[in-house]
Amino acid sequence: MLITETGLRVGKEALPLKWEHVDLTSDVVRVHDSKTLAGLREVPLSAFCKEELLRWKLLTGPDFSPYVFFNPEKSLTHLKAVRKVWASALKKASLAPFHLYDLRATFASRLSAAGVPDVFVSQMMGHAGGLLQTYSKAIVEYRRDAIRKLEELRQSHPNPSDEMSNL
């Protein structure tokens, strides 16, 4: 859910995410370590994502670990890989196998389908870019607007079996 709703990279951004970088008051995730300098960013949280993160925090205990996705055997470290767990979860859910990283593309596709300009999609995903990106940095309000558009798209297609669930 976090990757689908924020576009975070799996291994470098999502798995090592600390609760201190999840601002549930301002509704943003602050990415402090990324593959690129452009990846150091704030990503607004959708209401759905915020709700799920709050639920996850209640389930795991508010002070159990500094990490959102902690290692259950060593709570002071984060999960390093989830390939086997992901494959098992898909199988249990009777879903066709696909890479967890594909959820990042889902985020980008949904933003594009909601009418968010490509330059903002690229910036929200932390892509380094050319001249256009260098001189047209998205301000936080435009990023929040992008998430609002994503939520509007979800509300206009509430049935998970419709074509939008494949984006």
How does this model look, in words?
- The protein has helices spanning 2-6, 10-14, 47-60, 83-92, 102-113, 118-124, 131-135, 140-156, and strands at 22-23, 28-30, 42-44, 70-71, 74-78.
- The protein has a single domain, classed as Intergrase catalytic core (hpI Integrase, Chain A, Orthogonal Bundle), CATH 1.10.443.
- The chain is globular, with a radius of gyration of 16 Å.
- A three-stranded antiparallel sheet has the order 1-2-3. Strands 4-5 form a two-stranded antiparallel ribbon.
- The protein is built from eight helices and five strands, in the order ααβββαββααααα.
- A hairpin with a 2-residue loop joins β4 (70-71) and β5 (74-78).
- With 167 residues, the chain is mainly alpha-helical.
Strand order of the largest sheet: 1-2-3
Number of domains: 1
Order of helices and strands: HHEEEHEEHHHHH
Give the overall pLDDT as a whole number: 84
CATH class: Mainly Alpha
Low-confidence stretches: 131-136
CATH-assigned fold name? hpI Integrase, Chain A
Radius of gyration: 16 Å
* CA distance, first residue to last residue: 14 Å
Based on secondary structure, the structural category is: mainly alpha
Largest sheet: 3 strands, antiparallel
Tally of individual helices: 8
CATH architecture assignment:
Orthogonal Bundle
